[in-house]
């Protein structure tokens, strides 16, 4: 492998790597925007969720259709967002955002009672 071929391969790898990072971030942000409620995780979690959703969504579609789907296409973008949405759903489900382990049925609190007003106390000076 000569120097020119190595540089071309490295440039192609860097381009693919940066494309997946950008695409994963956009897909992860879109999945977080679609899912209602407070979203867990920061920038790295959003990126990982987007890339994982892309792999899962495109993998499922390729398994069902039998053809290879490129992530950077309209159908690839839709299934990648769906895959990231599925990851976010299970992350919230298993992370205890909807259910808390060990809690029984929901107990109703009594109705709030208005506080009593205290009578004004007047002191007479002698």
Automatic annotation (TrEMBL):
GO terms for cellular component: plasma membrane. It is found in: Cell membrane. Belongs to the UPF0410 family. Keywords: Cell membrane, Membrane, Transmembrane, Transmembrane helix. It comes from Anatilimnocola aggregata. It is a multi-pass membrane protein. This is Transglycosylase. The keyword Manganese does not apply. The chain crosses the membrane at residues 12-31, 43-66, 72-100. InterPro entries: Transgly_assoc (IPR007341).
